[in-house]
Amino acid sequence: MSSEATLFAHITQWLTNRIEDVAVEALGYILSQSPAARRALTDVLKVGGMDVGPIDRIETQEIGDEGEIPDLSGYDAEDTKRVLIEAKFWAELTKNQPNQYLQQLQEERGSKSAALLVLAPRARLRLLWPELHRRVKKEAEFVLPVTSETGDLRSASTEDGELRLLMTSWASLLGRMERQADAAGETAAKADIKQLRGLTNRMDGDAYLPLQQEDLKSEPAKYMLDAAQLIDDATDRAKRNGWANTEGLKATPQGRGYGRFVDIGGVETWFGIHLRGWAHHGDTPLWLSYHRNYHVHLQRAEVAKDCFEIEGRFCIPIQMPDAEEYHDVLNSVVNTLGRFAKRFDPSVPDASERVDSHFFRPWHSKEPGQDFARRILGVARLVDEAARCAVSRAEGDGIRWANSDGLKKIINPRREGYGRFIRIGGVKAWLGIHYGAWARHRNTPLWLIFDSHERPRLVKVAASTHEVDWRHCIPIDLPATAELDEALDPVVDRIQEIAESIQATRPKRPV
Fold first, then answer.
1. 376 CB burial (10 A radius; 0-12, 13-18, 19+)
2. Band of the pLDDT at 493, cuts 50, 70, 90?
3. Residue ranges of E strands in 318-414
4. Edge-first strand listing for the sheet containing 466-468
5. What number of CA atoms fall less than 13 Å from residue 224's CA on the CB side?
6. How far apart are CA 418 and CA 52, in angstroms?
7. Which residue from 59, 66, 79, 417 has the highest number of Cβ atoms inside 10 Å of its Cβ?
């Protein structure tokens, strides 16, 4: 059995969207049932400088006095709490993390040593650790001056070493647990660990892949804009044909791509650019996506066999013809939608071949391909981490040049791409992939976007400000072939530079 794709990983996405909670329960179950797994846990703590001795008992999500709920609590044979485990995938830290957890350990460990262990995807270790450490520094009660790093393991402790903050990857802990279970002959535990590794490996997806020089050119961005236009045009044509409607349905993203909810043949369908489907399952940007409740409809229409299961939904790729004219591609896609409508409801009218004159224009026949889709997913991950890192760095600096107070955490603007709202220098901005600015002005996918009324201030900030659809855009250059660590710091540095320039333009208050 491969830990890359397990039954547990497969069915979890269909049963719940609280995958982090499921992973915590699974880890708690394995640690409770397997002495070898608990020995592996204590070994990790020991490598990090904290020898807590044997862990005898594991409890899940106990509520602390201040309302904090660490994922797992580990007790020794004398029923003293020796370790708290907080498991993360890509969710942000809560207000209690990590300080309230450290406080809980301080109060309940007695005279014994204790540790807080944070688990995270390997790709997130380098970014999450400084944020944890900065939060601890803000609390006067905790001073953790002693730090170390060994492979995936990060460690910080009080000077006496009695209280320690540790962080490691899911892969590292589960790998050690699996080896211990194998050596001890615990075959059931080993199988359970492999199942959980399948889920954690899946959640570690969308890692940042270095961009290539050809990715930064304007052609891929133009293709993405044309593909988004194709979705809207095909939807409108389908509505005019009488077998599709969008009444009460919204344009909304899936798989970090642009799309529309459309009623096709009586079945609610998401139709659009699905980056995850394109990157991992089929060499086409266009997909149909269905809620799992429509599985019976897909079976009756005899299309279930063509489905891929992505993020708890049934997804079907739409192949596009190798054509040089836009109207030929449009006709092909509309006819495909029409065939699905007929399969769902045989009474729907046949598709019309009417093509409006403005559809006669060239089509970018050379699509960027699956590797491009994987790298754009990585840039979306970079957007997330850059926004978090900017806010965290600003809090650490004590200047507050960046924050997300009162802003939506994630926004996918219509067609343009993927991004987040962030306030820099006191001004609301949108940080993300913006295909329009990328295609028209500069060879970079990453942009800061501001409302039009901010133009007078921005002119003084950056000479490279561009206008796209009545909004003002500042490019953030990405180095080609750079890994995430190498790309992140320059991006955050540039955001800080712009934020400080904006702050400098604000009128000083009279003394």
1. buried
2. very high
3. 402-403
4. 402-403, 419-424, 427-433, 446-450, 471-475, 466-468
5. 32
6. 45
7. 417
* Single pTM value for the model: 0.73
Question: For residue range 162-179, what is the model confidence (pLDDT) as tens digits?
Answer: 889 999 999 999 999 999
Q: Cβ neighbours of residue 43 under 8 Å, at least 6 residues apart? A: 176, 180
Phi (first) and psi of residue 356, to 5 degrees: -75, 155
Q: Is 206 left (phi over 0), alpha (psi -120 to 50) or beta?
A: left
Give me the amino acid identity at 75. Y
Chain centroid, CA 259 distance in Å: 18
List C-alpha distances in Å: 23 to 19, 38, 72, 201, 351: 6, 16, 11, 11, 47
Structure tokens belonging to residue 134: 């900065």
CA 123 to chain centre: 11
Cross-strand pairs, 481? none
Cα–Cα distance measured from residue 15 to residue 8, given in angstroms and rounded to the nearest whole number: 10
Tell me how long the chain is. Answer: 511
Local structure of 177: helix, strand or coil: helix
- 3-class SS at 144? coil
Contact call for residues 320 and 330 (beta carbons, < 8 A): no
